[in-house]
Amino acid sequence: MPLTPWLSGSSHPDLPLTAPLHASRAAIGTPYARNNFFRQRLSGIGFSRKAFPLRKPVHHIRTTFLLMAGLMMGGANVAHAQGHQEDIPSFVQNGTLTVCTNPTLPPMTFVKGSDASKPEGMDIDVARALAERWHATLSIIPMDFTGLFPSLGAQRCGMVISGIIQLPDREKNFDAVAYQDTALTVVARANTAPINSMADLSGKTIAVQSGTSYATRINRENEALTAAGKLPIIIQQYPTEDQVVQQVLIGRVFAFVSQDVELYFRQKQLHGKVRIILKPDYSDYRHFAIYLRKNAQDRTLVQNAISTLEQDGTLTAYRQKWSISSQTEQALTQDTGASAFNWGAFFSALTSMAFLRGAFITLAVALLSHAIAIVISIPMAITLNGRGNSLLKAVLKTYVSVFRGAPTLLQLLFIWNALPQFFPIFREQWFTPFLATLVALSINESAYQVEINRSALSAVDAGQELAADALGMSRRQVYRYVIFPQALRIALPPTINDFISLLKTTSLASVISLQELLAITQVQVARTFEFTEYYAAALVYYLAMVFFFLFLQKRVERRFSWADRKKASANAS
Amino acid sequence: MPPEPDLTGAAPALHDAVGPLADGSMISVRNMSKLYGDFVALDRLNFDVQRGEKIVVLGPSGSGKSTLIRTFNRIEPHDSGSILIDGTVIDDKTNLTPLRCMVGMVFQNYNLFPHLSVVDNCTLAPQLVRSLSRKEAKDMALHFLQQVGIPEQANKYPIQLSGGQQQRVAIARALCMQPEVILFDEPTAALDPEAITGVVSIMNTLAEQGITTLCVTHEMAFSRHIADKIIFMDRGRILEITPPEEFFTTPQTERAQNFLNQMIRY
Ligand SMILES: Nc1ncnc2c1ncn2[C@@H]1O[C@H](COP(=O)(O)OP(=O)(O)OP(=O)(O)O)[C@@H](O)[C@H]1O
Ligand SMILES: [Mg+2]
To answer: What SMART domains does the database record attribute to this sequence (chain B) (predicted)?
Structure first.
């Protein structure tokens, strides 16, 4: 990188320029975050649930409050820290440097392997180098982007390093030290000629990730274009970064807007299918910075440390390690030729552990939640079928209406994001995305299963219960040996239909970062951009599972030949 | 609390029979009433059934015949008065399992368990309720299936049998509990004439073996020749209890006369 990056101020491209201090790229828009690939990798571990914050006023208010409280405490800390050793910043306490990061921005900070608690990237390396320099152990706290500044304010961490643009607005409340250059890029397909300015995009369609500040920035360009009597740039917004890139690859849009640092990393996946056609020099999109609580002495110490790392070549080495260099830009323009269906990628996806694991999680979630749904829906159905009107019945009826009425996706988001607001216990580590999905889908499915069970139970002739009673069977025996076996035959086909539907519904759980089959697919697509191949592999898995259960349905129905005169005769003979 | 039955009306015909139990009574009914909401389905009934007696219950539709016999195995609990079966008071404290072992029942619509084979229909309750082994239950089932004349159907499912055959299975199923009383609720009403003959002859055989029988039926062959007594009911009340020859030749009440006229016409 040519410039000494810590000299000038700039802002993170993902933030609208007018964004409030505590806003983030994740919080200002969709619940899907920037790099879906890396988000998906976070699942299963406690912190990852925060990767999909609902946009809720409550949250913002709370965040602001925390931030203010944190600032006050931070102020106290400054005074307290005066007596510290000269070259070690006051926020290094008890020999530990605690760093908050949101590991969703490759190659700065992201989860590379399957262990979501161990982020990697340029930022993490820088943090490690700083810790070493200050003779401290490094403790990384991965968290949602929204949580970064409040956590810094609340002294949960000493500094934030998370690929955040240096922004004057932020520096009113925190100190910033730049450590890495960055620039906005406009990227199109490999055979596209470079353009000279953003104005050349007039009338063309570009894709951006929703929730980022790119749209805000381009709208400012559009104001200028409109004033000049030109057509505006048409903006399409997609929830994930890989979808943004796909739109260019399939030719639906002319170009997409991204960050050069991120793009250098991605070019490995893109195999020269795209190229940078413009790097508009936005002065507020130039540097990534480390943030710390306001403290002039600490700021100088951090700045000195970064200067040293830059001068001794450490940062340059990191940039090479993480492919953050302009040489790699060349690779972007090397077209690898027309892309046909890559059978190799398809088969390796099909046989990969990742897909197998995703399919297993899909199956496990569907089977478990349906089993729970069946277990809770049977007593509900019996109660609802019973005579008379009770309060319990009214409650159950409401339960069924509510959970059949609300979209499943909403229920998932509610349980994951809203429940912890009422019951803090659901914020804890044990409440994993798997468990949350299980709860949401069990409740949702039970509302449907109740109706199946009810109609199946009432389809069993009343004379059956009468006859069983007359033979002296207990209530339990009557149900167990007489009513349930007959109700089962009636309930089974719709139940298996429901199950198949549930199996596919599990894919919604990717929004709360469950690593099920579709989430795995998206992760792989984001990594390789071979979306046709990976979608096809996922399709094969889903179809294989569905066909297996349809086959099972046929087999099980054969066991009910007693209900069909011809089949019964065929069996007997 | 269900409302008390109407006590202001005329005293029931057999009201005077209230008193200590006759020795050897299998069933004793005293002032027994049954309500469905406000509707009086059974109105202060009194009678005794001796051990081994065969009783036919007659009466127009809706008169309470089914309700009456269902009170004896407490499938329909009565609301007031008392019922004694073999000297035991039947109320909400009664242990129902021994009661239902003692009092078997056969329904108009057979109510066989369609998901079980014929033999399993007969062995289910003896195994569950009387704790017989599978082998004991099966031996007994085959014995009674033999007695009702369809041993060869043992492994078929109910759906594969004719109506008459199904009713025979239902009788065998009831007999497998080795009851001392058997209740029939119009067992032949859903059958064609040929099948009726078969089922009635089985009922005759049972009657000859001395099992106490209460039967709701319009089947003349059984009522006239086998029954010891006819109980004639109308609107929840018992109007006559008389031997069949008397009932069919010289009915005491106008209601019974009308009823018999109707019966003969069809
Ligand atoms: N569960 C119930 N709830 C309310 N009323 C009932 C119920 N069962 C029976 N009844 C009423 O009680 C009366 C007696 O019914 P029951 O079935 O004993 O008549 P029945 O003499 O057996 O008639 P049928 O010859 O038509 O079988 C009828 O008027 C009937 O409508
Ligand atoms: Mg009846």
So the answer is: AAA
Reduced to 3 states, what is the DSSP secondary structure of residue B25?
A: strand
Examine residue B159 and state whether it is found in any structural domain, yes or no: no
How does pLDDT run along chain A (573 residues), one tens digit per residue? 333 333 333 333 343 333 333 333 333 333 333 333 333 333 333 333 333 333 334 444 444 444 444 444 444 444 344 444 568 999 998 899 999 888 777 788 887 655 556 788 999 999 999 999 999 999 988 766 666 787 788 787 899 998 888 878 788 899 999 999 888 889 998 888 999 999 999 999 999 876 566 777 888 899 999 999 999 999 988 876 777 888 888 888 999 988 888 777 777 667 778 888 998 878 777 889 999 999 999 999 999 999 999 999 999 999 888 888 655 444 444 444 445 788 988 998 899 888 899 999 999 999 999 999 999 999 999 999 888 778 999 999 999 999 999 999 999 988 887 887 788 888 777 888 899 999 999 999 999 999 999 999 999 999 999 999 999 999 999 999 999 999 999 999 999 999 999 999 999 987 776 878 987 787 677 666 778 898 999 999 999 999 999 998 888 888 887 877 776 665 554
Cis peptide leading into residue A107 (ω within 30°): yes
Domain that holds residue B237: 5-112+179-265
- Residue with CA nearest ligand 1 atom 22: B66
Contact of A165 with A289, CB cutoff 8 Å: yes
Interface of B with A (CB under 8 A): 73, 75, 96-97, 99-101, 104-105, 107, 109, 111-116, 124-125, 128-129, 155-160, 173-174, 177
If DSSP codes are grouped into helix, strand and coil, which group holds residue A186?
Answer: strand
Contacts of B119 (CB under 8 A, 6+ apart): B138, B141, B142, B145, B154, B155
DSSP collapsed to 3 states, B56-104 = EEECCCCCCHHHHHHHHCCCCCCCEEEEEECCEECCCCCCHHHHHHHEE
Question: B157 and A572: CB-CB below 8 Å?
Answer: yes
Q: Structural domains in chain A?
A: 4-167+294-325 (3.40.190.10), 185-283+333-340 (3.40.190.10), 345-572 (1.10.3720.10)
Rounded CA-CA distance B121/B169 in Å is: 8
The reply to whether A471 touches chain B by the CB within 8 Å rule is yes
Beta strands A109-110 and A274-278 are unpaired
Which residues, 6+ apart, have CB-to-CB distance to A220 below 8 Å? Answer: none
Whether the CB-CB separation of A6 and A303 falls below 8 Å is answered with: yes
The kind and range of the H/E element at A536 are helix A531-558
Mutate to test the interface with A, among B70, B76, B99, B113 (most CBs of A within 10 A): B113
The total number of structural domains in chain B stands at 1
Q: At what angle do helices A296-311 and A314-321 cross, to 10 degrees?
A: 70
Residue B157 lies in a domain: no
Q: Is the CB of B200 under 6 A from ligand 1?
A: no
Q: A235 forms bridges with which residues in the sheet?
A: A206
Coil, helix or strand at residue A471:
coil
Sheet with B25-36: strands ordered across: B39-50, B25-36, B80-85, B88-89
**Total Cβ atoms within 10 A of residue A338:** 5
CATH classification at residue B76: 3.40.50.300
Structure tokens at A193: 């000629």
* A556: its two tokens: 């099980």
Q: Residues with Cβ within 5 Å of ion ligand 2?
A: B 66
Is B153 part of a structural domain of the chain?
no
Q: Residue B167 falls within a domain, yes or no?
A: no
For the entire predicted model, the pTM comes to 0.68
Q: Whose CA is nearest to atom 29 of ligand 1?
A: B62
Distances in Å between the Cα of B59 and the Cα atoms of A180, B56, B66, B230, B235 are 101, 10, 10, 10, 9
